[in-house]
User: Fold this.
Amino acid sequence: MGFNPFTYIYEVLQWVLITIFAPAPPKPNQTLSRPRIAVIGAGLTGVSAAAHIVGHGFDVHMFEAGDESSLGGIWSKVNNTSGLQIHSIMYRFHPRVRWSGGYPDRHQIVSQIKELWKTYGLQEKTSFETRVEKVYQEPNGRWIVNDASYGRFDGVIPAIGTCGDPKMPHVEGQDKFKGEIHHSSQLDQTSAEGKHVVIVGGGASAVEGLEFVIHTHAKSTSVLARSEKWIIPRNALVNMVLSFNVFGQETMFSWIPEGILRRFFYRDLSDLAPPPGSHGLFEETPMVNSDVFAQIRDGNAEWLRGDIIRFTENGILFNHRAQGVPKGGPGKQKEVPADLVIMATGFHRPSLGFLPEDTMSPPYEPPAWYLQVFPPEHVSICANNCTYANAIGTVGNWHIGIYTRLLLVFLVDPLARPNEYWAKKWIDMTRWMKARSPLGAFDFFTYSELVYWFVFCVAINPFRWKWALFVFFGIGSALPLRVVKQEDRLRNGLGMERKKAF
Assistant:
């Protein structure tokens, strides 16, 4: 293989990011200080958050419901043919991550998660096969996870993600179908070679099914989707530009990117795009994939919009609707032949029901929390990457560290900690700013809107200014901690009530 200057530049860029921003792993037998944090979930987000915590000298304990093979979360469960749909520069879930290419596959993603887990000595701090049933707070403000045998915690990071067990709905006639039926995440022991394949569903799970089909050379592929879905190119520049919508909702200018996508990406397949006047690009999470249209144009796949009526012995009876006809509306019935049906029906969302009941009280229930992850009643809880509904951006990037460091700041600096009243006021303000959104204020956001939230959070409170470099880049926690001690002495000298800090 010849020299690739872009790969070389990317490697150098990653080396620079690791050198400047990656916190040093704790030394063997190093005593870590309070605050002590409980991290629930050993997926990408949980491992990243825990690595940030110990890297900054604080203690952590991780809880994972599965065994050690579950390390990596959803990435430990999907097919070997699955890979990253966005460029890896947007999936640097920890500064120490080092990718070898732009679009890593499942094996490389899981290996990076495991390497991070080992590098930061998290083996000794992880309890596998430990399902969290309840998290409750003692009168002194410290948290207990399940029972007191794991000790007390000063903060809690639920990192359970949004993808739990696979959804496998039962469809009429399914028992009479002569072929195979599998969920889109459970295809490693299956072959599609020479078979007629039907993929049920048109979301992100359908992409996983298509990846499998492409790798195993199916005879034909039909994707059966209930509605039109925005699909954007697998291009880092396009993904970043769309994330720059700081308003986090449809605007009077949304027709520009939507029109460009229809004209230059959908082109002759514009019938598959959401029709003008229906749901906009900034109302739901788009699919990121460039292979879908290539497979359709090459005649290797077809994308049909409509409703499944029932299974037949040899396929699926389908009501094929025209663009713009609503679900359940009139269409043309046809039997789509199938030897293998892939149910791209997604996953059940894991429950946050183990948290205290007051965190779920309307109108401040998730995702309507402070910065979307901190329950206003308990800002010592940070539900990282498990409360969002729809977004344009990425779940595996810079924000994992920012949220984690904000939690640490709130715990160690009483003056930087938001109280319940102001946390709720921020939620109310965000609702007011997005009052014209067709969705709820927190049901869709973009990455630039998320960055705006972070900047506003730090800028609005002068006592957080000293923490800015630490919050955004993980740099320089020692000086702000010394300032906090001086602030404590000053407030104690003035006879002011001292809120608990560590």
